[in-house]
Design goal:
- The structure is a homodimer of 521-residue chains.
- The first copy, chain A, has 521 residues and is α/β, with parallel strands linked by helices.
- The first copy, chain A, is built from 18 helices and 20 strands.
- Chain A has four domains: 85 residues, Beta Barrel (Barwin-like endoglucanases), CATH 2.40.40; 96 residues, Transferase, Pyrimidine Nucleoside Phosphorylase, Chain A, domain 3; 206 residues, Pyrimidine Nucleoside Phosphorylase, Chain A, domain 2, CATH 3.40.1030.10; 85 residues, Pyrimidine nucleoside phosphorylase-like, C-terminal domain (Aldehyde Oxidoreductase, domain 3).
- Helices cover 39% and strands 20% of the residues of chain A.
- A six-stranded mixed barrel of chain A has the order 2-7-4-6-5-8. In chain A, strands 14-17-19-15 form a four-stranded antiparallel beta sheet.
- In chain A, α4 packs across α6, α5 packs across α10 and α6 packs across α12.
- Chains A and B meet through β1, β3, α1, β6 and α5 of A and β1, β3, α1, β6 and α5 of B.
- β15 of chain A pairs parallel with β1 of chain B, so a sheet runs across the interface.
Chain lengths: 521, 521
């Protein structure tokens, strides 16, 4: 036997990048026979710390049996993990038993039903933003803070913590306006109309948007059809200073970074928790420097919010947390019974938006009308505008061509891409879904239409998606084309046809069955 | 544009086994450029169905950028997923958008705070046992059913569902006895003493045990030092018929398979929920065909249960669910202030057990005494034994050598391995941890001693672990060796020394500070 009193650790593994995208989870790959730090000793602990001179990350262990993937003297890191560690391949790397993130003790307090305070939310959110949590730990946090598990003051703590752990922009103006929709309505591309309208009125509206998460297109995906949307901080500031507005992707600015990490679990789980939605939306807006926010809550049987009392409850929560965050909030409850506009998918939606801006007779009237309503309310954030005058100011800006002019200026500033709405570059396979009887369109399922557009390839394939020919209340005859879908790849086309056969998303019936709008606005 | 009305799907990918152990989660690897089913189209859905002629599994998608791992025309499956699909490499394989497991709707009811019924628990547990749930979905279920989220009838529903989705043994006898400890006490290897004692009394005790999950040794790990523990069903039945007992590993029999899947998340999360513990223990026992169970609940400051009221609450829940499952249960509350016996780790514990059976004067007295107490209570399950007589019957069986004789018969029947407790094959590095002052041992931390033994290599290295020289109440002088630890690998030895320096697990103080036992039995 060897007495070990005075030995020191010295052995190491060579760093290797493993080209596997594990979607926001740091994964470390060790060979099962790895001679120095045998994987078995670590296996039950599941998470290990990987460190090199001055850099360290925590990662979940996968055990590998193939030296072609990771050799016995190597340590493999997934794409995210490799980039977090930030060291070149071949670097001498060490591992040790990871301490659990400090905030796990606090997480277990929440799991066991206790209320957490502001400091505790800061600890958890800070660890999440640093990717210290595994997917399992993240899920535990999200379920333990789901819906009724948090009171409204806790939602504020969470929101504030999410702002604190990232960058926070300051535009040095009194009024920085933004709008947001809680989502769920395909084709609802009002931001690309509202931003040029309110900027033409002179308001500061530096709009950063997300890409689609579960929808067939986000504002960033659609805007990308017309212009570059990934701009560095300097370029963005310059554009906003000159044009009072932008329409860019928010992912580059490190605003509320914990939100992106949490979404990586919410998305595959299809978890749509009120508490996390409020914290997510408000933390992004406050971090982006907004002072005034218009929030669109659509109601409908296949919308996220299904009844007026539910919408009112949500409104109160948004108002409470906004007020704690010193953000001026107006909530508008809208008709969410069906998709907005005709096209669903980046190119199809860009087409509709450009037609509205050009006052083209083919422009979808519902998209135009909704955008004017919302823009009007935002214009009323201007202290010099009388309550009720916003809509007509917005309409004048649109009809006079000033909105189009502003949009063109923004597009040119961000970097114009070739796009002609009379000849949009749609995907190569097209399939028509027909009415199987005559009658009146009595319902259109937002979720199913979105699902069909996604399976067809949107938003990854910009020219894929769904183009609606009929809307609620329209009369159809058997054999009429209800909508077309576009797909670029043969397999996508087949999958989409199968999905449409399962459920087209349309119901044809009697006009008396037509669901009335919950809200007239 | 191509009109697609009459095309059928026909393209496929070649199956490849990817030698990565993802620990009970099916993972499918697709190349980012995969021409037929581009990974991007699937990415947001996260879970896809992989199918071939007559076989199908669901798996979580990881996107790969390296053709050495998975080529553009291949589909890679992790070790578990490949074995679930059960087809050879090169098989033509198809993928499609996975339907979410049907029970996810039910899971969301629970997440939103509703009570589930028996049918609903069956749906969820059946999907879990088939590996249809991703780690994220599993975590969501475990957190949503944690602690106070379930009432006692729901715990029964869960337990019953866990039994239903696996094999259930029937021994065709009135009394089939078993014992179980809720865990958390290192060295607590009483089963290997109780089983031969009660079998020598003539009771049927077909004991299947688990391997260590978070502890330095399970009964199966320790028994494996002395004999084979992985036996097929036929061999096990034969041994039990002949010797009235066995001491084998329970993992081969497909008893409560959902339990193993849930443990794969509970372990890395260190989630120790009462509800899941009850369902896990009782489902395994009922599936194994037990009719009578003795349950050991140790109490102590570093045990799982820290107070008598807490132990009583737990007892009532166990009693309720057992009664609904028609299992006769006796609960015994024991002293859990410190480890039981001296050795911690498979070989060290096997040494202690054999010394008790051989009535060796070096045998740890606390292990011997506790085993006799528990065996006595089990013997009283025998209707012919008077209440209170069990202990002396057990002691007679041990002292007369009949317990050793029975143990030798079991070892021979299962397949004896060479082991000499006078010369156990301990790991090659040994390190002594010394008292830094004189006084009385006032506390020994179960968790820290277990952690030290695990980091030293137990149970994967059978000869690794901790050997205690002093127990609670013993007097020590500065420089006395409190315990030795054994490690086989240099890195393990270094990690263990670091851990002991952080916290030795021992407190030396005044005899007045000694914590009294919560329970005298």
């Amino acid at each position: 036997m060897v007495n070990s009193e005075s030995t020191v650790v010295s052995e190491c593994l060579k760093l290797k990048r493993i080209s596997i995208d594990t979607n926001y989870e740091n994964v470390v790959y060790l060979h099962r026979e790895c001679s120095i730090y045998r994987a078995e000793g670590f296996q039950a602990l599941a998470k290990i710390e990987v460190f090199t001179n001055g850099h360290s990350i925590q990662a979940t262990l996968n055990v590998v049996e193939d030296q072609a993937i990771v050799a016995i003297d190597q340590i493999g890191l997934s794409i995210d993990a490799f980039s977090s560690l930030g060291m070149p391949e071949g670097t001498s790397t060490y591992v040790r038993h990871a301490e659990r993130p400090e905030s796990i003790g606090v997480l277990f307090k929440k799991i066991n039903g206790e209320r957490l305070n502001k400091v505790e939310y800061n600890q958890i959110v800070s660890d999440i933003s640093k990717l210290y949590y595994s997917k399992i730990e993240l899920t535990a946090f999200l379920i333990a803070t789901n819906q009724d598990e948090m009171d409204r003051e806790e939602i504020y703590f969470l929101t504030d913590a999410m702002v604190s752990c990232g960058q926070r922009l300051n535009w040095f103006e009194h009024t920085v306006v933004d709008k947001h929709c809680i989502g769920g309505i395909p084709g609802n591309r009002t931001s690309m109309l509202i931003v040029p309208i309110v900027a033409a009125h002179g308001m500061l509206c530096p709009k950063t948007s997300s890409r689609a998460i579960t929808s067939p297109a986000g504002t960033a995906d659609t805007m990308e059809v017309l212009a570059k949307v990934e701009l560095d901080d300097a370029a963005l500031s310059e554009i906003v200073r000159k044009h009072r507005a932008c329409l860019t992707w928010g992912g580059t600015a490190n605003l509320s970074p914990a939100d992106d990490v949490m979404i990586s679990v919410e998305r595959p789980l299809s978890l749509d928790s009120t508490t996390q939605m409020i914290a997510s939306i408000l933390s992004k807006k406050v971090a982006a420097g907004s002072t005034h926010l218009l929030l669109d809550i659509p109601i409908g049987p296949s919308a996220k919010v299904k009844s007026v009392p539910e919408a009112q409850r949500l409104r109160k929560l948004f108002e409470y947390v906004s007020s704690r965050m010193n953000l001026h909030l107006e909530v508008i409850i809208t008709d969410g019974r069906q998709p907005i506009g005709k096209g669903i998918g980046p190119i199809l939606e860009a087409r509709d938006v450009m037609r509205v801006l050009e006052n083209d007779p083919r422009a979808p009237d519902d998209l135009r009308h909704k955008a004017l309503r919302l823009a009007g309310r935002m214009i009323e954030f201007d202290p010099d505008v009388k309550g009720g005058d916003g809509f007509s100011i917005a309409r004048d800006i649109l009809e006079s061509g000033r909105a189009l002019e502003k949009m063109n200026a923004i597009i040119d500033a961000q970097g114009r891409k070739a796009f002609d709405h009379n000849n949009p570059g749609l995907a190569k396979y097209v399939h028509e879904v027909k009415a199987d009887k005559s009658g009146v369109i009595t319902s259109i399922d937002n979720l199913q239409i979105a699902r069909i557009a996604r399976i067809a390839g949107a938003p990854k394939v910009p020219g894929a998606g769904v183009d609606l020919a009929f809307k609620l209340g329209d009369k159809v005859k058997v054999g009429d084309t209800l909508y077309r879908f576009y797909a670029e790849h043969h397999s996508d086309m087949i999958f989409t046809m199968q999905e449409c056969q399962k459920a087209s998303g349309y119901t044809v019936g009697e006009s008396s069955e037509l669901l009335h709008a919950f809200v007239e606005y």
